[in-house]
Amino acid sequence: MEQASLYISCQDYKAPALNLKYLSHFPTMIQQFAWVILLFLFVINIDDNMLIHGQCLEDQSSSLLQLKQSLSFSALFSSTTSKLSSWNSTRDCCSWDGVTCDGVNGHVIGLDLSEEFISGGVDNSIGLFKLTYLERLNLAYNEFSPKPIPLGLDRFYNLTHLNLSNSGFTGQVPIGISRMKRLVSLDLSTMFFSLNPLLKLENPNLRTLVRNLSELRELNLDGVNISMNIFQLPLLRSLDISVNPLLQGSMPELLHKGCLETLVMSETLPENIGSHTFLSTIVLTQSGFSGPIPPSMSKLTQLLHLDLSVNKFTGPVPHLNFLRNNSLNGSVPAPLFTLPTLKKLDLSQNQFTDSLDLSTNRLEGTIPLSIFRLPSLKILSLSSNNFSGTIRLSINQSRLGILDLSNNQIRGKIDLEDWLTSVIPVDIGSYLEFALFISLSHNFLSGEIPMSICEATSLQVLDLSNNSLTGSVPRCLSSNLELRVLKLRNNNLHGIIPEPFRKGCGLRTLDLNGNRVQGDISKTLSNCTLLEILDLGNNQISGTFPSWLGELAYLRVLVLRSNNFYGHIEHQQSNSTFNMFQIIDLSSNKFTGSLPAELFLKWKGMMTHEDNYNQQILRFKYLPLSDSYYQDVVTVTNKGMQMELVKISTIFTSIDLSNNQFEGEIPQVIGDLTELYVLNLSHNALTGSIPSSLGNFKQLESLDLSDNKLSGGIPKQLADLTFLAVLNLSFNQLVGRVPEGAQFQTFNNASFEENYGLCGPPLSKSCRDDVMEVPLVSTTPNKDLCKFSLFKDCIDGNFVDWQLMSVTIGFGVGIGIAIYIAVSWPTWNRLCVA
Predict the structure, then answer these.
(1) 699 by DSSP, 3-state: which?
(2) What is the spatial distance between Cα 185 and Cα 320, in angstroms, rounded to a whole number?
(3) Contact assessment for residue 272 and residue 249, using Cβ atoms and an 8 Å cutoff
């Protein structure tokens, strides 16, 4: 018979004329059609309900109860069965958990007894084998070990799905399963891997077992010991034969004409795997494969998912020629680039419309110019590789939203000259309206930051840190209200901080640390009301302490270290003064005066609060509907070393006021900052004694009070700081016995160096028997030294020097006697009068 064909041309097609005589019948026709649809839906609903809750036949109910009586359970979990607890004669058996009936005859067609901790009673259960209409049987995840698979399962001639996975069955798989010709799914797998697999296919072997299973679509023999090669299963779509150490050889030629789509296997990889052209999924992860990858894999033109991870493959990767010169679109999957020795990847002449992510590999050489010619590319991430050469962006990146080339070896200037030629229109910013994220950090870039970067009006994150950039920071960056993160740290930039910052400024991170920026901090920065991190350390910025920053309610991190700030730290009267502070570093400046006790009381972020139990990491989500975050970092001095916190936890707190000219006493109120982790007040001119309130720092890990003029003793409360890892009290004027405590015994002499009045463990200098610890209650020196060994007694908390007192009393007594003699003796009296 000749096959008819239909051809419709849009140009030749003419609409038929509308016949008005049929219009009068439309309402009746529509009503009749609606009733038919409603009746059809009603029948489907009834049938569906009957399938689940159909009326159970009495003999079926009796067989199920008989099965329940015959079962035995694991002693450890005998009371935890859930499905069988609903099996009782007072309810319709079709409503019992794990039971499915058909909607016509009331026969039980489905039985699910998985995860019931059954240990026996199935093999000799008369009740089970009376359920001859069963189509689905699930005994997975029980405790039948060490029992074989029950004989007689072939009586269930209607069975289409049999699941015996992870049930503990052992021994040979019975040949009766091969007579279940209607099986569509067979699962004999086990996750309990051992050197001696629980189930085995030897006699009968796999060929004999499934010879007649022509309807089989899914076969899972994961963990079954198979010693024969696989043969033709004409309708097989999925095959899992992993963890079969004795499986050898290649797949027979008959299977080449099959329909296999998913293959999961281990221990052996057929050389002719490429002959199975329908394969779309291959999972060979953690399979112990070694040797080369078969070149025939390059012929798998339908392959969508390939996982070869965690193996010992050697040799070259086959040429996956089917990836080039196609019309592939979407994203390049990340697992493709987990091959540690991949040197060449050809994805040319495709139409990727979304992203290209090759980050965190060992790719090297120059970045191919063809990448920058992909007009629809939205995400390009080549970070953490060994790429070199220069960057040459072009107008083709009009849709590029994320550009991440960080952590490479890219040199030279940021080349945007294609955007600056006379042929480019004046509205160049429109070509960059989609750019949200640009990171070129940790490279070898030089030259100035091009002013054209400001044309990216949608830019939210700009990270050019850790390069060799020169020139000034483009002033226009302070006018970008969309910018959230500006990170230019560790370059050679000079000039002033860009200003003015406009109202509505959205900056949350401003990091210019490690440059040569000068001038003052512009007060217009207070317009950036969302600012959380301000890091201006290691520059040449001058001026007094910017107390007006206390108006920024969300400010958590303030780093001004190693600049030219001077003067007193004044307290600004405001209820929101640095309430969220968790890290402040003012070290290595020229601040003077006393420590700001009033400010300490404002720093609620360093006190106990409810967020302590919900710690988070400071980061910025620049794509609201994704998991794309920008991670903030900060450098702090902790435990005597400078370290970079690549993740800033909201519960980490630190105060560093070292290397200044602060004087006076350490205020007692500093002890209210109970959540403090790091305190560094070293290299100042502080006097008085160490406040006992420092013992409130239960989380304190590092305490440095060295190079001051502190006197008195060490408060015994410091010995209770169990997390204290670094203590430096050297170069002060401390006296008395070092407090005893497990933590204090771990410190060496260097922690107490140049305090000649200190003695006792852990110091090498021992104390006299009459030397006691110096308990500190007040910061008044004479009270602090009240019980020190040189002074033998105390009166009202003050020490008494009896040597000085005896001289004073003796002198007074002598004068008194002389006056008494002169007045009372007559001869002396007359002489005195004369």
Answers:
(1) coil
(2) 33
(3) no
**Quick one: 643 exposed, middle or buried, by C-beta within 10 A (0-12, 13-18, 19+)?**
exposed
Instruction: Please provide residue 13's backbone torsions phi and psi, each rounded to the nearest 5 degrees.
Output: -70, 135
| 670-694 tens-digit pLDDT | 999 988 999 999 999 999 999 999 9
At 384 the three-state DSSP class reads: coil
Check residue 284 and give left, alpha or beta (phi > 0: left; psi -120 to 50: alpha).
alpha
Q: Which residues of 374-397 are buried (b: 16+ CB within 10 A; e: fewer)?
A: beebbbbbbbbbebbeebebbbbb
105 Cβ neighbours under 8 A, 6+ residues apart: 57, 133
Give the 3-state secondary structure of residue 285.
coil
The answer to whether 453 and 480 are in contact (CB under 8 A) is no
Average pLDDT value for residue range 772-801: 41
Sheet holding 733-737, edge to edge: 711-712, 733-737, 757-759
Rounded Cα gap, residues 193 and 212, in angstroms? 29
pTM: 0.56
**pLDDT tens profile 443-486:** 888 888 888 788 888 888 899 999 999 999 999 889 888 899 99
Domains contained in the chain, CATH given: 324-470 (3.80.10.10), 544-768 (3.80.10.10), 807-833 (no CATH)
Q: How many Cβ atoms sit within 10 Å of the Cβ of residue 132?
A: 13
Which regions of 520-599 does DSSP assign to beta strands (E)? 533-535, 540-543, 557-559, 564-567, 583-585, 590-593
